[in-house]
Amino acid sequence: MQFGMMDYGYGMMGWMWILGLIFWILVIAGLVLLIRYLWEGGGAKRETESALEILKKRYARGEISKEEFEEKKKDLL
């Protein structure tokens, strides 16, 4: 029985192939997550306006009258 470098090399090639495959799967998954993160605004917190702030802006632009503003403000608070 002769054990040379070639006998042990094939077992190691299998492991290296699996590790290489795992590496590329992780790289591709990381790129996909990075692209999604950047596409969705880079993780910036989007603050939504409260209903009262929207109401104040509508009143300031003249879209609603003072009576409507007061009535809707009372409903909100």
Count of beta strands: 0
List low-confidence stretches: none
Taking the sheet with the most strands, its summary is: none
Fraction in helix: over 70%
Kindly report how far apart the N and C termini lie.
90 Å
Order of helices and strands, N to C? Answer: HHH
Class from secondary-structure proportions: mainly alpha
Q: How much strand?
A: under 5%
Task: Write down the domain tally.
Answer: 2
What keyword list fits this structure?
0% strand; 3 helices; 77 residues; 2 domains; rod-shaped; mainly alpha
Task: Describe this entry's structure for a reader.
The chain has 2 domains: 34 residues; 31 residues, no CATH class. 74% of the residues lie in helices and 0% in strands. It has 3 helices and no strands. α2 runs antiparallel to α3. It is rod-shaped, with a radius of gyration of 31 Å.
Fold blueprint:
Blueprint: H1 5-39, H2 51-61, H3 66-76
Q: Summarize this, please?
A:
The chain is mostly helical and 77 residues long. The chain has 3 helices and no strands. The chain has 2 domains: 11-44; 47-77, no CATH class.
